[in-house]
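Notebook entry, structure prediction.
Reason for the run: the old model in the group folder had no record of what sequence produced it. Starting over properly, with the input documented here first.
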Amino acid sequence: MTNIFLFLGNLNMTELLVILGVVLLLFGGKKIPELMRGVGKGIREFNNARHSIEEEIKEGMKEVDKKKIEEKKAAE
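New structure, fully documented this time:
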């Protein structure tokens, strides 16, 4: 989780307050929760897609390993 926020390490408190102020001015107090919900849904969808790709890769690796084992048995 800390890897995501590494770029924030170079910002001091004043810069963070200015950024938060600009966000508040641009979106208003009522739109920020909607914006955060959208960001949360996007992150969730990204993680689900990443997880499904990882599972497909693992399944493919298992199939390759099974084929190698079968080939070794057939060669013996």
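Summary: The two ends are 49 Å apart (CA to CA).
The old model has been moved to the deprecated folder.
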